[in-house]
What does this fold into?
Amino acid sequence: MLAAVLQRAQWPVVVLMVCVRLSAVRGAACPPRCLCTADILSCPALDLDRVPAALPAYAATLDLNHNRIQQLEPGAFQGLLQLEVLRLAHNQLSAIRPGAFRNSSGRLRHLDLSSNQLLVLKQSDFQELAALEELLLFNNRIKHVESTALSGLTGLRKAYLSHNRLTNFPFFSIRTDGHRQLTLLDLSSNRLPKLPLADISGLPPALQEGLYLHNNSLVCDCAMFSLFRLWDQKGFASVRFFRQEHVCLVAGVQRSGISFFLHQRYFEPCNMTATPQQEASVSVKAGAPLLLHCVTSLSGRGAVFFWLTPQLEYVAPPGNNGSIRMFANGSLAMAAPQERDSGIYVCVAQVRRLNDSREVNVTVLPRPATDATEPFNTGFTTLLGCVVSLLLVLVYLYLTPCRCPPWPRPRPLAATAQSQGKEGGAGSAQSSILTPTPPASTEGPGRKIYPSHRCSSQPSDSLHQ
It folds into this structure.
């Protein structure tokens, strides 16, 4: 019995010793001078020149900001299976070695590489980060972005690449790599001289609204003015909050920047020469005319165009049997589309061995049942109102229902006053002359009231008297 009691008493001691040992092991895994608390590992401003080798596996947030780390070696974050947030801002990063994020957390959502010295973004930089949602790369020295650099980031929502040295950006890769969740792409304060408008117009509407292009070295161009004016009309935040920063250079000359919105008179000649824009999705009522533009990267290079309808019908200039017309510049016109014409229309442009395509989703809305009868009802109501008004005028002029007899001539004033004086006294005579309305009382000998609006075919009693 005593042995059983002692054995039970030893269990709490054993559990306590195990917890102390685990906590000691866990505490030993925290790098020197770093702060480890809960699932956060913070090592900022420690003058580190590389990622610490021994990192606790429980870390979900790793802060290495404000250090001197120059590159990320392969397997630098190996074993961090819980890592979700990684901050490496304000370091001296100039290279990301292939496999730097290999065997790390597949749940990394936030990666901050801002304020470093990166020059190029390669395909191998972010291959293992399929769950990444936010990528911060602003304030680097990036000059080039490979077309497949962001291809593996299928979950990307926001990408910040402002304040770099970009002269071009592969917009077409955003459309082809399936970045369906990307809603913000900040390319402001770079050195972009020209924009591939066909590729930008093909981006999803949500991404166009979150595409920031202000403070670049854009050369003044009518097509870009047309694009920014369209975004301004739609109320996009990228234009609404940075109107004054949307500038361009006249003939590419530095210090000749003018604002797209403050100097619109400069772009007045662009009204006839601006490149047409085409929405990715179009809605139109049944029976209303529809015009689709084929805007691709090959437009304006002597390309040959043709369209494929949702029914897989091949359409080339001048069109088909009459319901669809097509022009040499690639535009497609439909005089009266119906609901059956809804679907995906594909435009293909060909220049020698090069070709590019553009999809437009057309939705033909059904016509309300009241639309067909509304013009007839409105015209009939107007005509009926005119006829009734004319009949009333004719009745009033020629068919007067009552002809009033002539009014009796008024008696002389003296005689009237004398007779009234006899009936009601001098006071009543004076009041009857000065008061334009009949007296309120009709009592008294010989006093009668005849309403002026009443008309009778028989003479009144006063006339017989």
